[in-house]
């Protein structure tokens, strides 16, 4: 092994979180090493956010061709070239890849090492023959698909988000294990692209979201032909003659056999720590992920962990948020504290499903009396013009009107949740939304109408009426 190379900052993992740290740190003139054993850009670019949204976009175009009748457009069943859909997904990745490339980061001054990393001790690691020492390390190795211990699963060919985007032929019948965001997004996309789809969820589909809002999404998917079985625990998997067979135990005790041409496992994620030899570095971890404090430091104070590998909310934007905190703390010694109270998330089904802050039950538990402010898309003029009236905005506010949380289900929910995230992070009240002038007609007005609900009944209060009468006498 060569002589040790010394860096100010060494980052393990070139996914979104690691790249964000590297790009920010190198601008301040520090010496940065970036180690990646796989594809630059990590899961988000290659297997997650980017390809899934490209696939959903193709599926949306197919669905639009079927649903023009209310607008006077004759509906047609689209002819789908699934290989061309795959090519669209690949082109999207290729278009974005230069931003995450080794060449770009090397040009910035980052030392990029393409090899697996493993710690030798608390201040040293080895990667591809390089012996690296650094003042600070950042572990940003992300997560991989969790594979549940279902009898027979290891004996059949199955897909995960890391392989499904390589399909050149449309599945005849896609069976999906897992009714979370990944499972539901890919289920709807493949259904719209012409496949039969069955989703098997052992508990409740989209369980982390508001139950009423999630129900709107599930109803929409079922109307499009996606079969969704909740309380459906898969007890065995087998394959015969190119057909996958899933034995399912339902909540009512019934046993059912579900057959399909392809099997997608979308049963969550697990942190990617294999081969790092964390114990040698004095870094504590559990099955859930690397243990960190509120400043994202591990048990070894010179090592940080960020993003999915910490086992918290597993979103690209969380990794990027973590990256900013680490740069501030590691380079400038500024005190930081990860605050997850205003982290939004979105499920990109159609309609979309978005959340930020506290849910209704949690808000009542923490704050006692709260206001639940609702407004339906059906009462929004732009939604009526677009024929997209399903869903609603639901905002939770304190007694004094401070925004505590929001759930949105409907068109462009991922865009519409953003002002509520700002309101929570800035500790604003609903008054800020009410006093904001919004363009007409836009979907964004549904947020403002929901905020107005806080003052419902105010004109009917006797003291308000008496005040108005008294002011009227002043001329």
From TrEMBL:
Keywords: Disulfide bond, FAD, Flavoprotein, NAD, NADP, Nucleotide-binding, Oxidoreductase, Redox-active center. FAD binds at residues 53, 141-143, 308. Binds 1 FAD per subunit. InterPro entries: FAD/NAD-bd_sf, FAD/NAD-binding_dom, FAD/NAD-linked_Rdtase_dimer_sf, Pyr_nuc-diS_OxRdtase, Pyr_nucl-diS_OxRdtase_dimer, Pyr_OxRdtase_I_AS. PANTHER family: MERCURIC REDUCTASE. This is FAD-dependent oxidoreductase. Residues 7-319 form the FAD/NAD(P)-binding domain. GO terms for molecular function: flavin adenine dinucleotide binding; NAD(P)H dehydrogenase (quinone) activity; oxidoreductase activity, acting on a sulfur group of donors, NAD(P) as acceptor. Its cofactor is FAD. Residues 343-450 form the Pyridine nucleotide-disulphide oxidoreductase dimerisation domain. NAD(+) binds at residues 178-185, 201, 268. Belongs to the class-I pyridine nucleotide-disulfide oxidoreductase family. Disulfide bonds join 44-49. It holds the Pfam family Pyr_redox_dim.
């Amino acid at each position: 092994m060569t002589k040790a190379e010394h860096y100010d900052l060494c980052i393990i993992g070139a996914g979104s979180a690691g790249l964000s740290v590297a790009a920010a740190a190198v601008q301040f003139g520090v010496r940065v090493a970036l180690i990646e054993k796989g594809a630059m850009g990590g899961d988000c670019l290659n297997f997650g956010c980017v390809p899934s949204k490209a696939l959903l976009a193709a599926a949306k175009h197919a669905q639009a061709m079927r649903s023009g009748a209310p607008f006077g457009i004759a509906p047609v069943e689209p002819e789908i070239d699934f290989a061309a859909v795959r090519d669209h997904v690949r082109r999207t990745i290729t278009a974005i890849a230069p931003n995450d490339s080794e060449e770009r980061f090397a040009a910035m001054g980052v030392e990029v090492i393409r090899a697996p990393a493993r710690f030798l001790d608390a201040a040293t690691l080895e990667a591809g023959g390089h012996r690296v020492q650094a003042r600070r390390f950042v572990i940003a190795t992300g997560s991989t698909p969790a594979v549940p211990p279902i009898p027979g699963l290891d004996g059949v060919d199955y897909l995960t988000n890391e392989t499904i985007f390589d399909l050149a032929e449309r599945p005849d019948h896609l069976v999906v294990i897992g009714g979370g965001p990944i499972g539901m997004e890919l289920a709807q996309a493949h259904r719209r692209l012409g496949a039969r789809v069955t989703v098997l969820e052992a508990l409740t589909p989209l369980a982390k979201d508001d139950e009423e809002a999630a129900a709107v999404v599930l109803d929409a998917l079922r109307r499009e032909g996606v079969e969704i079985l909740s309380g459906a625990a898969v007890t065995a998997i087998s394959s015969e003659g190119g057909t996958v067979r899933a034995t399912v135990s339902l909540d009512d005790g019934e046993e059912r056999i579900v057959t399909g041409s392809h099997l997608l496992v979308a049963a969550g994620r697990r942190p990617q720590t294999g081969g790092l030899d964390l114990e040698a570095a004095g870094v504590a971890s559990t099955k859930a992920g690397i243990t960190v404090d509120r400043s994202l430091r591990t048990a070894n104070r010179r090592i940080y962990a960020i993003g999915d590998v910490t086992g918290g909310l597993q979103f690209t934007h969380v990794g990027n948020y973590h990256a900013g905190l680490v740069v501030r703390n590691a380079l400038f010694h500024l005190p930081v504290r990860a605050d997850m109270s205003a982290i939004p998330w979105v499920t990109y089904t159609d309609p979309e499903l978005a959340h930020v802050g506290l849910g209704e039950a949690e808000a009542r538990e923490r704050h006692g009396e709260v206001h639940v402010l609702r407004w339906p898309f059906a009462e929004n003029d732009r939604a009526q013009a677009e024929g997209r009236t399903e869903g609603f905005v639901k905002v939770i506010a304190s007694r004094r009107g401070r925004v505590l949380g929001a759930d949105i289900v409907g068109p462009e929910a991922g865009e519409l949740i953003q002002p509520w995230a700002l309101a929570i992070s800035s500790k604003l009240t609903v008054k800020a939304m009410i006093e904001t002038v919004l363009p007409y007609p836009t979907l964004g007005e549904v947020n403002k109408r929901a905020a107005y609900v806080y003052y419902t009944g105010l004109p009917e209060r006797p003291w308000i009426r008496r005040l108005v009468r008294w002011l009227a006498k002043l001329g």
